[in-house]
Request: fold
Amino acid sequence: MLQIENLHAAIGDRPILRGVDLSVKAGEVHAIMGPNGSGKSTLANVIAGREQYRVTEGTVRYDGRDLLSMPPEERAKEGIFLAFQHPVEIPGVSNLYFLKASLNAVRKHRGLPELDVVEFRDQVRERVRLVEMDEELLLRSVNDGFSGGEKKRNEILQMAVLEPRLAILDETDSGLDIDALKIVAAGVNRLRGPERAIIVVTHYQRLLNHVVPDFVHVLSEGRIVRSGGRDLALELEERGYGWIQPAAEPYGGEARP
Amino acid sequence: MGNAADQVKGWVDREYRWGFVSPVEADAVPKGLSEDVIRTISARKKEPEFLLERRLNAYRHWLTMIEPRWSTVCYSPIDFQDIVYYSAPKTSKDGPRSLEEVDPELLRTYERLGIPLKEREILAGVAVDAVFDSVSVATTYQRELAKVGILFCSFSEAVQKYPRLVERYLGTVVPYTDNFFASLNSAVFTDGSFCYIPPGVRCPVELSTYFRINAANTGQFERTLVIADAGSYVSYLEGCTAPRRDTNQLHAAVVELVALEDAEIRYATVQNWYPGDREGKGGIYNFVTKRGLCAGRNSRISWTQVETGSAITWKYPSVILKGDDSVGQFHGVALTNNFQQADTGTKMTHIGKNTRSTIVNKGISAGRGQNTYRGLVKVLGSADGSRNFTQCDSLLLGDRCGAHTFPYIEVRNRTAKVEHEASTSKIGEDQLFYCQQRGLSREDAVSMIVSGFCSEVIRNLPMEFAVEARKLLEISLEGSVG
Reply:
C-alpha cells in the first residue's frame, strides 16, 4: 500500500529525515518509535502532505501512485488520514458541520452519494458513542475550547467516521489518561482490517499494549535504525532509547524484518 | 503550492453577477445641482411646501460645508455637478399603481436579481419595496399589512398619503445639518422606504427594501424612515446591487429609525453594490448615514450589516439610547478584497439610565483591501448604570491588505461599565492544512474559516438573509486559491 524509499525531508534548510525506507501493506499495523526530535512527526506530516516539510530526495508511492505529487486534500480523499498531534481549532465552525463537509468530500471522491442530514446524524451518533465523547461537543466549534483529551478523541471520532485506508496517528496517546487511552485504542482497533493499514507514531510503548503492532521501527536522527516485532517496543520500554545508536549505514531495504 | 500569502496572491475577483444594465428608458433631470434642480425634483414628486423648504434649507447648509477627510478612505474628489440627481424609469402614467403596471423589463431585472417581487413569491413572507435608481417601483404585500394598520410604502407615497407622520419624524434622528453627505441627501433625496408600525403591533412578516442603481452617472440618494410606535416590533431587511461600470457612482443614503416605548426594530443590511474591478476601477461610493433613536423607555434597536460590495464603504449605523433601559446593538461584517476600502463601525450614545449596548464587528481584508473599524461609545452624565460591550475582530488574508481599529470611548458617568475586546488574526497554514487533510480544498477551507469567523454576526440575520450573506461571502472570496 505504502512504499517509502530513501526519503529525505527538511524544514527550511534543516534536514530532518535522512533516508527513510518503509513499506506498509494492507492489514498491517506499524509503530514508529523514537526519541524526541528523531523525525517521527515529520514522517507523518510528509505522508499527509504538509507543505512546510520539503521533500529533498526519495520517493513515496501509495497504491503504486506517486504520493508526493498529490495535494493534501487529494491524499485525504484517497483514504489517508492523519490524527494530529495538535488538533487545530476553527472558531465558529461547528464540529458537526466540519465532519459532514469532510465526509461528503471523501464520499463524493469515491463516487458515493452525499449523506443527508438525518443519515449523517445517525452515523455520527453511533461513532460518538464508540469514542465515549460528549455529544454536546458536536455542536461546539471545531476543537475550540476542547480539553487535550477531548481534542484527541475528536480526532479518533473523525477517523471512525471517515474510515480511512491508511490511518496515521501522530502521538495521539500523548497527554491521555489510561481511560482515554483505552478508548482511543478501541477506536483504532475497530478500524483494523485486511483492507486497511495503520501507522502509530509514539514516544512510549504504552499505547502498544492496547494497539498491538505487527512491526515496530525505531527512528533516530532521521533514519530507521532498527525494526522488529512487538518485542522491540517492550525492550525499548525497559532500556530506553540510549542503547540504540544511529547506524553508520542506513538499514535501507532491510528495514523490514 | 506556496504558503497562504502566495495562494491569496491569486485572488481573482469572480464575475460580479449583478453587473448587467437594464434597457429601461429613464426620465432624468439634467446633470448638476442647484436650487432649480431641487425645485424640479420636488415639483416632479408633487411635494408639500414643508418638504421643499427643508430641501432648500439642507442645500443652503450643505453649500457651507466641506467634504470630510478624517476617515482612512481615499478617493479622488467627487464632482457634485457631474451627477444626475433624479432618474426615474419612464412610465406612461405618473407611477405604477400595482404590479401589473410595472414595466415588465423592470420586473425581469428584479427577477435576475432574485428578488421575490411577485405576489405568489411574497407569500413566502417577505414584503418588498423596490427602489430602482431614484424611485420606488413596487411595494408588495401592502394590502395585507394595512389590515393590521402597518403602513409600508415608498417614501414618495408616504409624503402624499401620510404627510403629517413624515413631517413629524423626518430629520428628528438625522437632522439636515448632521454631516456633509446627510445634508446632501436631505437636499436631493428622491425616494426610499417608509414604514410605520402602530402601537402594540408585531409586524407579521420581514419587511424588505431592495435598492438598485441602473442608470449611468446617477447618484442614489434614498431616504428611509421606520417608526415603531409603542410596544410594536418590526424586522427590516435591505439589499443592494448596481451594474458594473467604469466610473464611480455615489450612493449617499440616510436611514432613520425611531423606536418608541417598549418597541423593537431590527434592521439588517446585505450590501453588495458593485465593488469595482480587480484594478480598483469603478464601483460604488457608499457614504451612508444610518441612525436609530431609542426614544422610549425599554425600546430596542438592532443593526446587522454584511458589507461585501462597494469600492468604498463609509457608514456607522448608530443608536441613540435616550429612553431608560433601552438597548442598542450593532453586529457587522465587512469584507474588502482587491482595492476595496471600508471605514465602518457604529456609534452608541448612552443618555438614559441603565441603557445597554453591544457591538460585535468582524472585518475581513483580502487582496489589497483596507478595512477600518471605527466606533464611538459615548456615555453621558445622565446614563447611570449603563453598560457597553464591544468586540471587534479582524481577519487578514494575504500580506498586502490592512486592518485598522479605532475605538473611541467617552465616559462621563462613574457608574457606567464599558468593555472593549479586539483581536487580529491571519488564516493560519495550520488551519488550512487541517481542513485539507480532511478532504477539503484550500478554497473551501478559506470560505469555511471565514464563515466561521463571521458566524456570530450571520446568526443574527433572518434565515433567508443568512443564507444569502454566506453565499455572498463565499463568492467574494472565490478565486482565492491560485
About this structure: Confidence is low (pLDDT under 50) at residues 247-257 of chain A.
